[in-house]
């Protein structure tokens, strides 16, 4: 970090990183823009509890009054969950810093800040990716390019179901970002187990994930390692009904002229309302499952398994 005071790292996180103890990064856009109140705060705090119960230090990451903060306090999480804040991907970090704005950090911004603080594992829900129509709109998430430049292990349940999944997988190939399935050779479909697209590699244990990450770092490669962890079977939505809802969500976004950064929150909110909260329950269940696996991977990495 060029300016060591540019990012605030909690003493708990700093000490754990320095001592090589396991730490798990978590993003804040999931609770500032992805989940409705008051469930958003419950989910954010429950995730921290779950991480602690696994013997891992939680590092929730967001921007508080302009300051990128790694290891937010409970009071800070409560503030971000309760206020209308901006959504910060990497390019908004300096803007928030200069204007003093608070922000939820996307996967891209969170991965950047986690790495700056020395954290190697990050769990989230669903990744950003290539939006439908991107060949003319150029709308692809900054998550893609950032994950090609910033090394962490990122545990997710695939790219969000609203995205163009094959195009997203092609972009990860071009950007040289490895994508592996956790105990599956199918790319997970966020709310559903299987996106319908295959993967070339599978890993079967946290130790194997740790070994893959170590191999990548050992080669000096800059990219993250993406672990696709499918939603637990019992929590999955019905894929046929979901496809129909997603079609309607796209049509509504089109009708209302929704563009840019607002697109992802709009589509997720549409789906939550159209499924009467079922997609919300699925989102929370898969997130919990990813937090659990992230803790195991962080523990394996800290144990020096390679
Ligand atoms: N996954 C969720 N809910 C979310 C997001 C992901 O379950 O709100 C957020 C992540 O922070 C991700 C962002 O980085 O959406 C992608 O937004 P965009 O497509 O504008 O890059
Ligand atoms: Mn976008």
From TrEMBL:
SUPFAM superfamilies: Indigoidine synthase A-like
A single GO BP: nucleobase catabolic process
Cofactor(s) needed: Mn(2+)
Catalytic activity entry: D-ribose 5-phosphate + uracil = psi-UMP + H2O
Pfam families: Indigoidine_A (PF04227)
Gene Ontology cellular component terms for the protein in this record: cytoplasm
GO molecular function terms listed in the Swiss-Prot or TrEMBL record: hydrolase activity, acting on glycosyl bonds; metal ion binding; pseudouridylate synthase activity
Cofactor binding description: Binds 1 Mn(2+) ion per subunit.
InterPro entries reported in the protein's UniProt record: Indigdn_synthA-like, PsuG
Residues involved in substrate binding: 87, 141-143
Top-level taxon: Bacteria
Binding site for Mn(2+): 139
Function text: Catalyzes the reversible cleavage of pseudouridine 5'-phosphate (PsiMP) to ribose 5-phosphate and uracil. Functions biologically in the cleavage direction, as part of a pseudouridine degradation pathway.
Family named by the database record: Belongs to the pseudouridine-5'-phosphate glycosidase family.
Entry protein name: Pseudouridine-5'-phosphate glycosidase
Organism: Janibacter melonis
Gene symbol of the encoding locus: psuG
């Amino acid at each position: 970090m060029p300016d060591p005071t540019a990012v605030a790292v909690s003493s708990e996180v700093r000490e754990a990183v320095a001592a090589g103890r396991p730490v798990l990064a978590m993003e804040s856009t999931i609770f500032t823009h992805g989940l409705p109140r008051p469930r958003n705060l419950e989910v954010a705090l429950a995730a921290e509890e779950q991480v602690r119960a696994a013997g891992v230090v939680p590092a929730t990451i967001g921007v508080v009054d302009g300051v990128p903060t790694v290891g937010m306090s409970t009071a800070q999480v409560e503030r971000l969950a309760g206020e209308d804040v901006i959504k910060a991907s990497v390019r908004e970090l300096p803007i928030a810093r200069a204007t003093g704005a608070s922000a939820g950090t996307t996967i891209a911004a969170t991965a950047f800040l986690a790495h700056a603080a020395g954290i190697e594992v990050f769990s989230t829900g669903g990744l950003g990716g290539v939006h439908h129509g991107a060949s003319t709109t150029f709308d692809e998430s900054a998550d893609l390019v950032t994950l090609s430049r910033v090394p962490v292990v990122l545990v997710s349940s695939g790219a969000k179901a609203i995205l163009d999944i094959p195009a997203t997988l092609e972009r990860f190939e071009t950007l040289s970002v490895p994508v592996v399935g956790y105990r599956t050779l199918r790319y997970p479909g966020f709310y559903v187990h299987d996106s319908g697209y295959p993967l070339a590699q599978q890993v079967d244990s946290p130790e194997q994930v740790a070994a893959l990450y170590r191999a990548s770092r050992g080669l000096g490669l800059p990219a993250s390692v993406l672990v696709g962890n499918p939603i637990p079977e019992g929590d999955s939505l019905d894929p046929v009904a979901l496809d129909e809802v997603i079609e309607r969500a796209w049509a509504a976004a089109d009708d209302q002229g929704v563009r840019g950064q607002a697109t992802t929150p709009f589509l997720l909110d549409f789906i939550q309302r159209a499924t009467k909260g079922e997609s919300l329950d699925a989102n929370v269940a898969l997130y919990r499952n990813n937090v659990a696996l992230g803790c195991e991977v962080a523990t394996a990495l800290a144990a020096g398994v390679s």
